[in-house]
Design goal:
Length: about 80
Amino acid sequence: MDSIAILDFGSQYAQIIARRVREAQVYCELFPWDAPAEKILSIHPRGLILSGGPNQSMNRAPPIFRILYSRRVCPYWEFATACRL
């Protein structure tokens, strides 16, 4: 089954993004930005959405993002983020 992991950095739109993904008949789960990699990988995500917010860290990428990006596990999309590798 296709699934998407949404990492929430405090965005006011995270729930709306999740609803839109589900409306497209794709399973998704919303995770806090610092969720353990094992928890996120347990849903076998085919993609990753970073949903930003005003209080997110400007200088650190979440640990899971580094893992997924370095292994090229899945594509990612950023919404209102300032995340830097």
